[in-house]
Amino acid sequence: MSLLASPTNIQDLKKEAVHLPSWDLTFRQIWDLELLLNGAFSPLNGYLGQKDYDGVVANMRLADGKLWPMPITLDVTNDFAGTLKSGARVALRHPEGMVLAILSVSDVWMPNKDAEAESVLGTTDDGHPGVFELKKSHPAYVGGALEGVELPPHHTFRHLRHTPAELKAEFARLGWKRIVAFQTRNPMHRAHAELARRAAQMIEGNLLIHPVVGMTNPGDVDYFTRVRCYEAVIKHMPPHSGMVSLLPLAMRMGGPREAVWHSMIRKNYGATHFIVGRDHAGPSNPKTGKGFYGPYDAQQLAEKHQKEVGIEVVSFEEMVYYEDKGEYWPVSKIPEGGRVLNISGTELRRRLREGADIPDWFTYPEVVKELRMRYPDRSRQGFTLFLTGLSGSGKSTIANVIMAKLMEVQTRPVTMLDGDLVRKHLSSELGFSKEHRDLNIKRIGYVASEITKNHGAAICAPIAPYRAVRREVRQMIDAVGAFIEVYINAPIEVCEQRDRKGLYAKARAGLIKGFTGIDDPYEAPENAEIVLETDKLSVEEAAAKVLLYLENEGFIAPEAEQE
Ligand code: PPS
Known about the structure:
By secondary structure, this protein is α/β, with parallel strands linked by helices. It contains 20 helices and 19 strands. The site of 3'-phosphate-adenosine-5'-phosphate sulfate (PPS) has 21 residues, from helix 15 and helix 16.
């Protein structure tokens, strides 16, 4: 049920909002709010209160016993939470300033996020993107009912956006009674299209391609590219048999619970059936390369709850290309000795990166064209070299040599974001607390990501002592080009001995507090692309190693191939 107020009430709510405390929503919160307001999260009438939250976390049930698998909470700062009491009213605002809803506060509490992560996502490991987001969110939760003023605005692909009520009306208009929804956060290739087409055939109904365009797994293809792909793929289906509609959901990548949640959302959008394939919404652990969940865990949990949800789960196993027949078959149906072809996500990325062939049996020409535009081969991509290391490890000296050499051998514009320079021009008001250092690195990351996105080369050389913020920057830049972490590794004794600026001596004398390596931590990178031991290498050798890496990985094309 939509939580939007009636037109007359909206005017009253807008007047009331002028005098209310405001909370500026984060992007993730805007996506949650949209689906709360438009009824996609029905039966929720707002953010979970503490009792409902406890039940959802413990056993996927609201306090009244209704099924609901995912905590939908409003996270706020301690300071803001401290100003709120039960009964307070808060204006929830879009970053551009509009009031989207008014929240009547019922509860304010401090959640145990580790317990939430363990119970809902099955792990507290922040290699899991849902856990990472959860830990990054504000520390206090606010629950309460919502009165919607307006839905968040969308300026893209408006012809593909529907509220649950609009989508149901569209199904009725088209005379569709049996609708199978296909969830995706990736471009669709032939295997996915075949699976979705077969599902529609099986249920003797129509297909709803229902991709998530809110928040997905970091590193996923951006939704602009993906949506153009879906629009191309649907044209390869029988005419008028299916449609595309976009779902502005912030995924938690919670595997089994996420599958139940997705099925409830699709039920609210009017689907009668929901496809759950292998590894539904399951991320893999960057540390082990393995999934956080069993490949069919999500299917099992979604099947278990399908009756209660009121949607039929259509379970599919992985589809592979059966070369002998020239068709896609479920992997378990391939006879002994049958020749099977498959291209993994990693292999596809390699082929795009290297400009290698992407065969027609794998995907559609329009999809290849979109992906090649989005992911030009590496010689045309932007990149960021992110040098991190202790003060005096040699970052700036090496960065300057790399910069000169890059300008000699390739044509991308090169921008230097050296620690000291940035602190002078970009972060002049910041000190060296953890908060200020993180902000400094985020600023550098932001500028570097813009340079990378526009196909330039950025060389950053801050200390960047904290792992979590380096990872955030990596994610931001990986989405638009390449992030290459270069660990400038010199033992603290060596750095201290060099003490070019005399800062170590001052730190030892207690004249500088919180000096990295002395009385402030340096968390060494664990997966840096390049490690330079500067107590063993000369500056020339260190820079040459970086250039060699760039050449070997295809970022610097042979002279004859450069445009
Ligand atoms: S950070 O942690 O990444 O934000 O630091 P960064 O912006 O690279 O700035 C590091 C330079 O600031 C000087 N400096 C300090 N460094 C570390 N800890 C403390 N407390 C500190 N106070 C001043 C120092 O000159 C660093 O420069 P480099 O080039 O690393 O020697």
